[in-house]
Amino acid sequence: xxxxxxxxxxxxxxxxxxxxxxxxxxxxxxxxxxxxxxxxxxxxxxxxxxxxxxxxxxxxxxxxxxxxxxxxxxxxxxxxxxxxxxxxxxxxxxxxxxxxxxxxxxxxxxxxxxxxxxxxxxxxxxxxxxxxxxxxxxxxxxxxxxxxxxxxxxxxxxxxxxxxxxxxxxxxxxxxxxxxxxxxxxxxxxxxxxxxxxxxxxxxxxxxxxxxxxxxxxxxxxxxxxxxxxxxxxxxxxxxxxxxxxxxxxxxxxxxxxxxxxxxxxxxxxxxxxxxxxxxxxxxxxxxxxxxxxxxxxxxxxxxxxxxxxxxxxx
Length: 315
Known about the structure:
By secondary structure, this protein is an alpha+beta fold. The protein contains six helices and 14 strands. The strands form two sheets. Strands 6, 7, 8, 9, 10, 11, 12, 13 and 14 form a nine-stranded antiparallel beta sheet that branches. A five-stranded mixed beta sheet has the order 2-1-3-5-4. It is globular.
């Protein structure tokens, strides 16, 4: 039994050491508990002492129950928080991707749910379901250089952003729910055809370029306030994405775009209210503002304190 459990674990560690998710180890966990109970039985037979056997049985039973309860409670809490909030968003990524793809397309992705509904060929960069991806040793740069997918879904990690900028890809949509867990947002990329004027270089704004209520920003995941000033001087930014965590009520936003000429434009948008029903909608809202390259700065002003998320500038 131990050999079987070890063999299952080795498969995961060998093929995908970076993806050590708890739900991968249900089978090894069950096998381990069975092995423990079997071993315990033989220990009791070896002791042949009724009092000791009863005491050990009681201790063992309590230990198994506590362990099982922690597993069950942990799973319940995970379902009530993370999954209830953010699997809705990952499913939305899949719905959006399915609308724009065809069987002739290729999509790269590192997660299963966002590509579940697409009819396109999926280059699975997690390495779990794609022999083609593993033939490139799950290296995104190498795979893109040979396969040329039209679309892609990935977290906006800095190294992924650099890869997207090199090939190049533009951003079609950003999904910010996962940033509430201090993780980079899911991003839907689209390959840029020659001659296109779409922005092909995207990067997350550094906190040095962000001020919140006239104070320096702390980090791109925790920008809380009413006035957010984004310094875009010298960046040639033409596209700005940012997220807002939804509140119980809608929140009006005024976006002031300041040009190098001294002129300013004002845009009015609204962060919609969060729907109270479970699984009803995403917990964040994405905003996309198209800009001219001469932009000096952008001020985002809310009518009440909001949680602004992970601004991404494109040029």
